[in-house]
Amino acid sequence: MRILKIQTLRGPNYWSIRRHKLIVMRLDLENLAETPSNEIPGFYEGLVEALPSLEGHYCSPGCRGGFLMRVREGTMMGHVVEHVALELQELAGMHVGFGRTRETATPGIFQVVIEYLNEEAGRYAGRAAVRLCQSIVDRGRYPKAELEQDIQDLKDFWRDSSLGPSTEAIVKEAEKRGIPWMQLSARFLIQLGYGVNQKRMQATMTDNTSILGVELACDKEATKRILAATGVPVPRGTVINFLDDLEEAIEYVGGYPIVIKPLDGNHGRGITIDIRTWDEAEAAYEAARQVSRSIIVERYYIGRDHRVLVVDGKVVAVAERVPAHVVGNGRSTIAELIEETNLDPNRGEGHDNVLTKIELDRTSYQLLERQGYTLNSVLPKGTICYLRATANLSTGGIAVDRTDEIHPENIWLAQRVVKIIGLDIAGLDIVTSDISRPLREVDGVIVEVNAAPGFRMHVAPSIGIPRNVAGAVMDMLFPNEQSSRIPILSVTGTNGKTTTTRLLAHIYKQTGKVVGYTTTDGTYIGEYLVEAGDNTGPQSAHLILQDPTVEVAVLETARGGILRSGLGFETANVGVVLNVAADHLGIGDIDTIDQLANLKSVVAEAVFPDGYAVLNADDRRVAAMAEKTKANIAYFTMNPDSELVRKHIQKGGVAAVYENGYLSIVKGDWTHRIERAENIPLTMGGRAPFMIANALAASLAAFVQNVTIEQIRAGLKTFRASVSQTPGRMNLFNLGNFHALVDYAHNPASYEAVGAFVRNWNTGEKIGVVGGPGDRRDEDFVTLGKLAADIFDYIIVKEDDDTRGRPRGSASDLITKGITQVKPNCRFESILDETQAINKALDMAPDNGLVVILPESVSRAIKLIKLRGLVKEEIQQNPSTTVVDIQNGVTSSVINTLL
């Protein structure tokens, strides 16, 4: 077997609207292409030996063991690889269950689709599954050591990609509330929400967190001085920078026992507590100096360690933190008890899991000695041996929930302290013998105030009730169910996407909102180009959705982006599907128009139930998408007598209809006429029917988003098919004696659309410069030739500079074949170079004629046409100058600049 390609999907996609995280592996079965599993000697036995847990896979029989039943009876190897890849992830702790396997149009080549939680792990699992299956085919077994290594590698991928318990809690709460989120590319930032309504977080700091509050909290001595000045009980202490000052500092705080810790440390690093001798104090000083130049010396207060979490000025959780310890069983040594404790699946490295594995350091051995133990000591049953003096979870401690026990006065004090420091989220470390009594009564103190406090002790305490502290954060960031989203309007179709997207964005601008939109020629925010290029995929969508100035997103959504990565958003408010026609067939295993329709239907399906799918009622494949989406339906039609639309309106639906020369919105028994088509510049005086259809779709999409008829009308009347607003989309140039039209038509449907306009051109001869992208099928080029013969009086056949792997001249020959099949006496010639072809057409243009250029490079075609206009002006001003002179450089600087 051979893997031909692996793709990672991250949003709603061709395979599933709900399952966004999918790996698509294109797998060539090679010599196994016609060999089902039951015909491979020993394969079933080898597979069960390697992965007995596959017994839990149901598969199509719908019962436990169903998949293995299929293997025993005979199934293709692609299907086996799918299940093995899923099971490998399961064994590594990643719970996934969705998979699909489909044979492509090429016999023996399959698309294997598997769900993933981590991208790298998903891709690895696919490759490992192929290795495992191939090994069993070849050798009858898969070595246990290799399987164990695969699973360990997958666990490492999963661990390394972990968001951490605190961020994970926030993300899960966001998902529960329907708040979209994404990881940003720097500083471990998480974005919650979209556009202007977004919030950002880093760990448990938000974009509302005061930098002054963070700086103060990080300066533990300054925090203590400010709190002491406001009457808050804090430990007596001082800061030193040299070992020589340690003895005096110990005397200042009242003698032993003491605490020594770094001034700007965190997570318990470099802290030593309950120090009782000078030797211990010296060792503790050196440990603290490894973390910070300045050292805090404090009095040690007897009591239990508590963490009080305050969010948005309110105490939301309290946990008692118990230092790392083991409990004797009367049989095991302390070393054995530590090893057994660390086997707990809830314990991981650092902050990877809800608990941390116990690791010993110098203070651990001092503490053992103080308790009279060594690692070889056997503890009596029920006896507790503490292994760490500090109670941080990051050093192996556990947490006990005490939220319901804290005294009201302590709640008041904690909330006051956080306001004094100036933090929106803070964790207070309190030492007290009894959190249910006021600190003043039990000599309790507030030891530290922490910015960016960890949540894991509250969301997953070892003992007690888990607290939804992330919910409090969401309530703070998005109060009173404030929206985290912005309107997303997604536009797809075979033809007209860019024009409709630009028009819809232009209409929305009439509302005064900042519109971000993506098109095949660039990404725009407001009036400005952010990034040039074909930006119709998920990355461009993310650029818009991440921008904090954008209030509305209008996203052109092309087939390629959906196939490669899925949609760049989870759900839209409006999904517009313009049409589905033959284009790009045979690419990406989309071989039929019906498959293409299924792909584009993703846009209609990924719409909120209270949103709208705006569908072309005149295209049966598009109209049928109404059955696949849970959203409301809105139809647009060029046929005022459409039966489908009539029934839809009778049921209370809304539609945009071209009737009696008007673009109108129809709902129930009323009709809102927006404007006559002939008054809308985009329709070119009403002569371009497909532009009328695009305008209907854009108007309807805006209307269902509560844009007013007046605003829609204003947008339609001020939008033009110009080089500035829609480059390459029906750009018409008046060159005096004739006109030139540039349009990026490159498939049969778009040729027909341009033809509808050309046939309405009533004066002069019509010359066409035609071609098509080289990666289309032979029959597609023949069809383009047939269409061109029906549209133009004279045809110049050219080819793209990039033939996309097709031999030079092949596309031209096929187009010519189509021309002669329809019109044997048709006047045409082949000029493969696009620039030469365009210049020839412009040279031979008759008076009142129309030259239609369907170019590969829109910008080049427009430059050549503009040059003609400048040439004409130059000759008028200087009659002795010829076109040849100008082309040879005897011309103005503006022409040189243009060229």
Automatic annotation (TrEMBL):
<dbReference type="GO" id="GO:0071161">
    <property type="term" value="F:cyanophycin synthetase activity (L-arginine-adding)"/>
</dbReference>
<comment type="function">
    <text>Catalyzes the ATP-dependent polymerization of arginine and aspartate to multi-L-arginyl-poly-L-aspartic acid (cyanophycin; a water-insoluble reserve polymer).</text>
</comment>
<dbReference type="GO" id="GO:0046872">
    <property type="term" value="F:metal ion binding"/>
</dbReference>
<dbReference type="InterPro" id="IPR011761">
    <property type="entry name" value="ATP-grasp"/>
</dbReference>
<dbReference type="GO" id="GO:0005524">
    <property type="term" value="F:ATP binding"/>
</dbReference>
<comment type="similarity">
    <text>In the C-terminal section; belongs to the MurCDEF family.</text>
</comment>
<dbReference type="InterPro" id="IPR004101">
    <property type="entry name" value="Mur_ligase_C"/>
</dbReference>
<dbReference type="InterPro" id="IPR036615">
    <property type="entry name" value="Mur_ligase_C_dom_sf"/>
</dbReference>
<dbReference type="Pfam" id="PF08245">
    <property type="entry name" value="Mur_ligase_M"/>
</dbReference>
<dbReference type="InterPro" id="IPR013651">
    <property type="entry name" value="ATP-grasp_RimK-type"/>
</dbReference>
<feature type="domain" description="ATP-grasp">
    <location>
        <begin position="224"/>
        <end position="478"/>
    </location>
</feature>
<dbReference type="GO" id="GO:0071160">
    <property type="term" value="F:cyanophycin synthetase activity (L-aspartate-adding)"/>
</dbReference>
<dbReference type="InterPro" id="IPR011810">
    <property type="entry name" value="Cya_phycin_syn"/>
</dbReference>
<dbReference type="InterPro" id="IPR044019">
    <property type="entry name" value="Cyanophycin_syn_N"/>
</dbReference>
<protein>
    <recommendedName>
        <fullName>Cyanophycin synthetase</fullName>
        <ecNumber>6.3.2.29</ecNumber>
        <ecNumber>6.3.2.30</ecNumber>
    </recommendedName>
</protein>
<comment type="subunit">
    <text>Homodimer.</text>
</comment>
<dbReference type="Pfam" id="PF02875">
    <property type="entry name" value="Mur_ligase_C"/>
</dbReference>
<dbReference type="InterPro" id="IPR036565">
    <property type="entry name" value="Mur-like_cat_sf"/>
</dbReference>
<keyword id="KW-0436">Ligase</keyword>
<keyword id="KW-0547">Nucleotide-binding</keyword>
<keyword id="KW-0067">ATP-binding</keyword>
<dbReference type="InterPro" id="IPR013221">
    <property type="entry name" value="Mur_ligase_cen"/>
</dbReference>
<dbReference type="Pfam" id="PF18921">
    <property type="entry name" value="Cyanophycin_syn"/>
</dbReference>
<dbReference type="Pfam" id="PF08443">
    <property type="entry name" value="RimK"/>
</dbReference>
